[in-house]
Design brief:
This protein is of the alpha+beta class. Helix content is about 20%, strand content about 15%. It has helices at about 25-35, 80-85, 85-95, 170-180; strands at about 45-50, 65-70, 105-110, 130, 145-150. It has a five-stranded antiparallel sheet with strand order 4-3-1-2-5. The longest helix is centred in the middle third of the chain and has 11 residues, at about 85-95. The radius of gyration is 21 Å and the shape is globular.
Length: about 190
């Protein structure tokens, strides 16, 4: 066997092929998939902490934290959409509730088919259905589902009326108009 620069790469053992479902989903792609399903029903998704790594006294295990919504083509793969988006949903939940959902907490994912009404307050009781394991997903499931997270409380991820503007100056002015921008480091305070 030859070694060094001219040698072929050693053969690695293990799995011969990885399933497409093992590939990590990208948030932007799944948001575009969500928008591409306008006729599908919007299904609310939430997480709750099952086992917390926080010091004792945290009582999050009875509380569901709503973080967004999923859609599936012809509403046929709702549970698969929740299961497949688990990582995106968990990451978004940790971003929205950083003090309540910690990085090493064990989570449970749920969904609700009940649409939130305009008059409902945030504390309204919602019947969440716990998502199972979902072993019978189609091979092309990633093209049939989408996820859209809720805007975080600071409003940074909030929707604008027009198309998304990616220019820095326009984004800064938009944030300034919303009152999100703080003081400039060059300002002099008395």
């Amino acid at each position: 066997q030859m070694a060094g620069f001219g040698a072929g790469a050693p053969k690695k053992g293990g799995k011969k092929g990885t399933k497409k479902r093992d590939i990590k989903l990208k948030a932007t792609r799944q948001w575009k998939q969500y928008i591409a399903l306008p006729l599908s029903e919007r299904i609310r998704v939430a997480v709750r902490v099952v086992e917390s790594t926080a010091p004792t006294g945290a009582d999050n295990d009875v509380c569901w934290f709503e973080v967004g919504a999923v859609k599936s083509k012809e509403n046929a793969h709702t549970e698969a959409a929740v299961i497949r988006h688990r990582l995106l949903i968990a990451d978004h939940a940790r971003r929205m509730f950083p003090l309540k959902i910690l990085a090493n907490d064990k989570l449970e994912w749920g969904y609700s088919t009940a649409e939130q009404q305009e008059g409902d307050d945030e504390d309204a009781v919602v019947d969440w259905i716990v998502a199972g394991k979902g072993e019978d997903m189609p091979d092309d499931i990633d093209k049939l589902i989408g996820f859209q997270g809720l805007a975080d409380p600071s409003g940074f991820y909030a929707f604008s009326k027009g198309l998304a503007d990616t220019s820095t100056t326009a984004s800064f002015n938009n944030m300034k108009n919303k009152g999100i921008v703080g003081h400039s480091p060059l300002e002099v305070h008395d």
